[in-house]
Structure formats: structure tokens, C-alpha cells
Amino acid sequence: MDRHATVALNGEKVIDNEPVIGNTNGAFQADITQPGPHHLQGDHTAVKYRNIVWRPVMKAP
Questions:
Q1: Distance between CA 36 and CA 26 in Å, rounded?
Q2: Which of left, alpha, beta for 43 (phi over 0: left; psi -120 to 50: alpha)?
Q3: pTM, rounded to two decimals
Q4: At residue 14, does pLDDT exceed 90?
Q5: Cα 49 to Cα 7: distance, rounded to the nearest angstrom
Q6: What does the chain look like in DSSP terms, one character per residue?
Q7: CA–CA separation, 14 vs 2, rounded Å?
Q8: Among 3-12, 26-35, 43-52, the least confident range
Q9: Range of the domain at 26
């Protein structure tokens, strides 16, 4: 299963369709084929998030 991530910060893409390989440090389970939690992190200062949209990525038929 291919997993890719695109991230926009303040309307500008900072990560564009980059592969996510293996489990991330926040993984609660080893099965990467199953959906899991998303963790948002802000380091060293206060952070506010808004307009976050999660969309599943489907392979073309």
C-alpha cells in the first residue's frame, strides 16, 4: 500500500505528495494498511490549528 502526504501551511504547499515509509513515531499499531490516529505537534511555542481537512486517498481503478 502506497501512502503519501501533502501538507499546506498558510495556503502554501510545504510537502507535496511525499511518500510516508513505515510507521511514524506516533503509531499505535504496526499494520500500516489500517487507518490510525493523526497527531498534530507544535514545538516550543503555542500553536493553533484551523481548517484541517482529512481526505482518504483512493487509487485509480
A1: 10
A2: beta
A3: 0.44
A4: yes
A5: 13
A6: ---EEEEEETTEEEEEEEE--S--TT-SSS-TTS---------SS-----S----------
A7: 20
A8: 26-35
A9: 1-61
Q: Which of 39, 58, 37 is nearest to 49 (CA)?
A: 39
Q: How many domains does the chain have?
A: 1
Distance from the Cα of residue 61 to its chain's centroid = 23
Q: Predicted confidence band at 1 (pLDDT cuts at 50, 70, 90)?
A: low
> Cβ neighbours of residue 40 under 8 Å, at least 6 residues apart?
47, 49, 52
State the Cα–Cα distance between residues 46 and 13, nearest whole angstrom.
Answer: 22
Give tens-digit pLDDT for 18-28.
Answer: 988 776 666 66
Q: How many CB atoms lie under 10 A from the CB of residue 1?
A: 6
